Amino acid sequence: MTVPTTGRIAHPVTNEPADARVEALVNEVIGRIADKWTMLILEVLTEHGEQRFGRIGDLVGGISQKMLTQTLRQMERDGLVIRTVHPVIPPKVEYRLTDLGLTLAEAFCGVWTWAEKNLERIETARHAFDTRD
Q1: How far apart are CA 39 and CA 75, in angstroms?
Q2: Is the model's pTM score more than 0.85?
Q3: Which residues make Cβ contacts (< 8 Å) with residue 3, sequence separation at least 6?
Q4: What CA–CA distance (Å, rounded) separates 81 from 95?
Q5: Per-residue pLDDT for the chain (133 aa), expressed as one digit of tens each?
Q6: What per-residue confidence (pLDDT) applies to 2?
Q7: Phi, psi at residue 51, to the nearest 5°?
Q8: Strand, helix or coil for residue 60
Q9: In angstroms, what CA-CA distances link 34 with 17, 63, 90, 120?
Q10: How far apart are alpha carbons 75 and 96 in whole angstroms?
C-alpha cells in the first residue's frame, strides 16, 4: 500500500486517497481480525458450521469463557456471526457465520494458501536471520 501526498493511505487499486470511513473500517477490521481468537473462531465456524457456545470453545482450545464471549459478541456486532437462542431449558445458544462472515473466511483462505506456498521460503529466511552474525 502506498501513501499519497495527502499523508493518508491510498486505495490499493486506484492509488487515490482512500475514503476516510473506508480507511477507518479497514484499520478497525484488520485490528480485530488479526486477533488470534477471531481468526480461530472464524476457522471453526467455517469448518464445522453452526455450533453451540461450549463446542466452539472446545474446538478453538485454550480460550477462556470470558474471551470467547467477548470475541463472539464483537463478531456478532460486526455482522460476522448470528447468535440464535433456542427457548429450551437449559438455554441452547448457537452461532453461525453470516454471509459477511463467510466472505471474510474466504478472504483468509488466501492467507492460508499463501502460507502453504511460501512456508519453506519463510523458514529459510528466518533461519538465515537467526543464524547471522
Answers
A1: 11
A2: no
A3: 9, 10
A4: 6
A5: 444 444 566 666 677 776 777 777 777 767 766 688 998 999 999 999 999 999 999 999 999 999 999 999 999 999 999 999 999 998 899 999 999 999 988 888 777 788 889 899 999 999 999 999 7
A6: 46
A7: -140, 155
A8: helix
A9: 24, 16, 34, 23
A10: 11
pLDDT of residue 91: 87
Please give the single-letter amino acid code of residue 107: A
- Give CA–CA dist 108/119, Å, rounded: 16
Q: What is the 3-state secondary structure (H, E, C) of the chain?
A: CCCCCCCCCECCCCCCECCHHHHHHHHHHHHHHCCHHHHHHHHHHHHHCCEEHHHHHHHHCCCCHHHHHHHHHHHHHCCCEEEEEECCCCCEEEEEECHHHHHHHHHHHHHHHHHHHHHHHHHHHHHHHHHCC
